[in-house]
Amino acid sequence: FNQPYFVCVDQEDNIIVSDKLNHRVQVFDKCLTFKHKFGQKGRQPQDMWSPHGVSADSRGNIVLANLGGETDGVGHSTKLQVFRPDGTWVSTISSDGDKLNLPHEVAVTEDGHVFVSDASDHCIRKYRYM
Question: Between the chain's N and C termini, which has fewer beta carbons within 10 Å?
C-alpha cells in the first residue's frame, strides 16, 4: 500500500481497499489473503487518480470516488467509477449539472443510487448509477 484510504466489505466478505497513492484498488479475502488489484494512474475513463471512497453493491460492483488532479498542466477529472468485482471498468457515473469537487466517501443503495460526500462543498450528493 501507499496510503490506503478507504475500505469496504462486499457480500462475499471480500475486503476492498482504495490505495490512494498507488492509484489502484486492492482486494483481499476475509482472512486478509491478497486476491487481486486493479487500476492505474492515467487519463483514460477506466484509469484512477487518487481513489478515495469505495463501496460494493449487492451484485459485487465496486463504486469508486476519484479525487482527480493535474500533471504537466493537464487536469484529470474528479469522477465516480463503476467496476465489476474482477476490476473490469463498467462506466463512469455522470455528475453533469451537479459537479463533484472533492468526493470523499461513497455508499450505494439497492435501487441503484450512490451517495457521495463532497468535502469541498460540504454536502452529500446523490446520483443514479444502475
Answer: N
